[in-house]
């Protein structure tokens, strides 16, 4: 049933993106990433004959549908802005003209260098949650090419968090992929049980997200973590830990 829901959502997305593009009639469409939402937008733009500039193409995501969506967007795009030369070469190997593929670096990192992060006080005020001790921001998404593993994997993550009773936890919702609802249900069950140290919020937005310490399997664990000079990867638990030192003081 969730797969049917995702397919329905994609059908609606293509239709509505197409309607919006026909109304706006842009000269070019800039698309970032590899999500199925981005793929739907690219498909609509291709049919509407609108050129596409694609950011973060040429990468590889093992175990996720994003791998196929990303390369499909690449084949629909006209200009390409990968974040390193290895990904530039992969795009060229896919048949794209080298003079339309530009290695521009990780644009998300460039944004972090310019943004003024929130203090701990500003963050706790904005979410109405007292951060009177060290805390984690927990973000976990289902692995889309695996069959019904989200509950077990997220359960392992929660078991790890139980070992840090001196830390508070801010949970954000899983993305819209299949089994994301299972993770969200587990989040609220955990918060209800640990209301003294946990809270849940659908989305923090980029500023609040970057102002916290993150546990989960988000790709931000690879791209953003070096900016904060500290990180830990645990392959056994498939966890990324990003630490922004000043926020934990």
How many beta-strand runs? 9
Task: State the domain count.
Answer: 2
Detail the poorly predicted runs. Answer: 230-249
Number of helices: 10
> How helical, in percent, are the residues?
40-55%
The order of strands across the largest sheet is 6-5-4-7-9-8
- Determine the mean pLDDT: 81
Largest beta-sheet details: 6 strands, mixed
H-E order: HEHEHEHHHEHEHEHEHEE
Q: From the 3D coordinates, which CATH architecture of the largest domain would you assign?
A: 3-Layer(aba) Sandwich
Q: So what's the overall shape?
A: globular
For the terminal residues, how far apart are their CA atoms? 45 Å
Question: Mind telling me the CATH class of the largest domain?
Answer: Alpha Beta
Computed over alpha carbons, the radius of gyration is 19 Å
Q: Assign the CATH topology of the largest domain.
A: Rossmann fold
Beta-strand portion reads 5-15%
What is the SS-derived class?
A: alpha/beta
What would you say this structure looks like, in words?
The chain has 2 domains: 2-105, Glycogen Phosphorylase B (Rossmann fold, 3-Layer(aba) Sandwich), CATH 3.40.50; 114-248, Rossmann fold (3-Layer(aba) Sandwich), CATH 3.40.50. It has helices at residues 2-24, 36-47, 66-76, 85-93, 107-114, 120-127, 150-161, 180-193, 205-210, 220-223, and strands at 29-32, 52-55, 79-81, 135-139, 168-172, 198-201, 214-216, 231-234, 239-242. It has 10 helices and 9 strands. By secondary structure, it is α/β, with parallel strands linked by helices. The model is unreliable at 230-249 (pLDDT under 50). Helices cover 43% and strands 14% of the residues. The strands form 2 sheets. A 6-stranded mixed sheet has the order 6-5-4-7-9-8, with helices on one face. It has a 3-stranded parallel sheet with strand order 1-2-3, covered by helices on one side.
């Amino acid at each position: 049933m969730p797969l049917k829901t995702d397919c329905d959502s994609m059908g609606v997305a293509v239709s509505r993106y197409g309607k919006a593009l026909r109304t706006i009639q842009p000269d070019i469409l800039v698309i970032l990433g590899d999500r199925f939402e981005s793929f739907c937008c690219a498909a609509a733009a291709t049919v509407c004959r609108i050129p596409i500039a694609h950011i973060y193409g040429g990468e590889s995501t093992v175990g996720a549908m994003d791998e196929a969506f990303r390369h499909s967007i690449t084949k629909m795009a006209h200009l390409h802005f990968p974040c390193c030369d290895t990904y530039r070469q992969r795009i060229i190997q896919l048949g794209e003209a080298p003079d339309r593929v530009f290695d521009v670096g990780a644009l998300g990192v460039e944004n972090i260098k310019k943004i003024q992060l929130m203090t701990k006080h500003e963050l706790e005020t904005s979410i109405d949650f007292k951060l009177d001790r060290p805390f984690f921001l927990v973000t976990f998404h289902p692995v889309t090419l695996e069959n019904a593993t989200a509950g077990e994997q997220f359960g392992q993550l929660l078991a790890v968090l139980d070992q840090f009773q001196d830390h508070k936890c801010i949970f954000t919702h899983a993305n819209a992929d299949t089994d994301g609802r299972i993770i969200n249900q587990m989040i609220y069950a955990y918060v209800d049980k640990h209301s003294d140290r946990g809270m849940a919020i659908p989305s923090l937005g980029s500023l609040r997200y970057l102002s916290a310490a993150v546990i989960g399997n988000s790709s931000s664990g690879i791209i953003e973590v070096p900016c904060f000079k500290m990180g830990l990867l645990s392959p056994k638990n498939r966890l990324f830990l990003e630490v922004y030192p000043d926020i934990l003081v």
